[in-house]
Amino acid sequence: MKTLTELQTLIQKAIEQLSYPAQPPDLYEPISYILSIGGKRLRPALLLMACDIFGGDVNKAVKAALAIEVFHNFTLMHDDIMDKAPLRRGKATVHEHWNQNVAILSGDAMMVEANKLMLQVDDRILRPVMDIFNNTATGVCEGQQFDMSFESRDHVSAKEYINMIRLKTAVLLGGALKIGALIGGANEKDANLIYTFGEQLGIAFQLQDDVLDVYGDPDKFGKQVGGDIISNKKTYLLIKAQELARAGTAGELQKWLNNPKADSRKKVAAVTGIYNQLNIREQAKQAIQSYAGKAFTALNEIDLPVTQKQYLNAFADSLMVRDY
Amino acid sequence: MKTLTELQTLIQKAIEQLSYPAQPPDLYEPISYILSIGGKRLRPALLLMACDIFGGDVNKAVKAALAIEVFHNFTLMHDDIMDKAPLRRGKATVHEHWNQNVAILSGDAMMVEANKLMLQVDDRILRPVMDIFNNTATGVCEGQQFDMSFESRDHVSAKEYINMIRLKTAVLLGGALKIGALIGGANEKDANLIYTFGEQLGIAFQLQDDVLDVYGDPDKFGKQVGGDIISNKKTYLLIKAQELARAGTAGELQKWLNNPKADSRKKVAAVTGIYNQLNIREQAKQAIQSYAGKAFTALNEIDLPVTQKQYLNAFADSLMVRDY
């Protein structure tokens, strides 16, 4: 059995060995560029881990793992255009470094490359793997569209928000794990359980991200505290607060949301105060524990010795922060 | 055997029956919208025709034909963003009707839908069909990138230009025909021949388009004569003229290209005069006949009775204009 770190190293090396044609340079150089920017390679490493724990040969899952990483980076390239993001991990985004047309077209070509990589799985599991991959891709597109449409809406329900983060982020974790499990020889039941594990853990992780933005230790998480509050981002916290606030409090919250010139520090303090008053932090924690709980339940039900499953358990534990 | 018109009707009905989820509307409505704008449905109809002439059941090829049409319309949706085109067939383009982000993301989702449709072919031919489909998709992306990069280049060779139109347009015709042939039961040799037929015919057709823009009867082709000259488009005619013009003529041609304020009618007349002087029209005609000839040679070599092949022959004849 390989550790997560070993699998991340394995996939990193495989990414470095990917090569693309020299012509046309503006189509292929951005692909190598965005893949070189890095990231933790968690999705492909999880695919390999799922293969490994079901007794499969991880070397036979590398192409599928690369497909997941290439697909993920394609979505980043297009999302960065849509979000007008100038930087990704401290480097210029593709539409900034080249231009927008290059980022659109290179992204399209990347998606084709991801498909070519995924099609290299064995005949035995070709159809189920491609079905999972395509359904995941559809989910990610739907999630991104919901996310964009929420920005211009006044009201978003907690249920809609959870569904959005599930589609935008969690289904790809679930899909990567399920594909890895199938390559490793898992039966359908266990493959579905590991999908649920990834999906529910992904939701818990995204919700935790929302909480940490407000309540996290800035030294530990390296982010500006309250960045989401400053930008009026519709997080789980804000959505819950809008749902629960009555009369005066609701008006005060709305006043901060409607004032683009508000002093950032005062706004963060005031909105955090409202969250505290409404007990939002505790409710978010309960939601996180509920989704993480569903993930661990699914993991427990997988028909494998605990010694095999400990790797996924350890991964999940490392994702979930305890001290916030 | 079905005629091209019958197959176009069949595919049109199948397109009208395609349905997508209601949510999120900004992801799926643009897909239905661009597919409803129409077009001749030539690519999917050719796929069905190839299946038909090899003795296959066209009903079993409908999903693959839809995949080709959905893929083609995805490329149109993204190309329209890159070209900043306000209209397509007289209707607002998706990025104009909605916005650019919607057009990027809907296009991405369309490509996934195209993959799902294509994956519905029989197991027997699943891998070769997906390989053709993905290689075609890569070719189309490369062609579009070459086309965009040519705009900002001073010199493009005729060879580079032919390769660009081959990738951007012709490989999809070839790919559609080859996939249809495989579904119809063609052997590899015949499938490759029908690919060559489509590819070479596609090149001939695109070159003819360049000639007709300058020398076509405006009443017949419904386009402004010389539109390509006015916009300095690097067509086969311009590239050949730049290749062949010497000293004074080259300078005069460059003068027109460098003058954005030139009177359009005068510019069209002057550049056409240069083309005439250099005998460009005849050379383009020879190139067209050469590519069309390769297409017909490949068609002749296909191991099928002439009565079966007459449908493709008739289609090719209908594409190639004689009186220019």
Characterize the structure shown.
The structure is a homodimer of 324-residue chains. The first copy, chain A, has 324 residues and is mainly α. Chain A has 2 domains: 1-186, Farnesyl Diphosphate Synthase (Orthogonal Bundle); 187-324, Farnesyl Diphosphate Synthase. Chain A contains 16 helices and 2 strands. A two-stranded antiparallel ribbon of chain A has the order 1-2. The relative contact order of chain A is 0.10. At the A-B interface, helix 4, helix 6 and helix 7 of A face helix 4, helix 6 and helix 7 of B.
Largest interface: A-B, 36 and 35 residues
Helix/strand-derived category of chain A reads mainly alpha
The helix-strand sequence of chain A is: HHHHEEHHHHHHHHHHHH
Ends apart, CA distance between termini of chain A: 32 Å
Q: What name is given to the CATH topology of the largest domain in chain A?
A: Farnesyl Diphosphate Synthase
Number of domains of chain A: 2
Give the tally of β-strands of chain A: 2
Poorly predicted ranges of chain A: none
In CATH, what is the class of the largest domain in chain A?
A: Mainly Alpha
Quaternary state of the chains: homodimer
Rg over CA atoms of chain A: 21 Å
The CATH homologous superfamily of the largest domain in chain A is termed: Farnesyl Diphosphate Synthase
Tell me which CATH architecture of the largest domain in chain A applies here: Orthogonal Bundle
Q: What is the topology, as strand order, of the major beta sheet of chain A? A: 1-2
Mean pLDDT of chain A: 95
- Give helix % range of chain A: over 70%
**Main beta-sheet strand count, sense and barrel state of chain A:** 2 strands, antiparallel
Approximate shape of chain A: globular
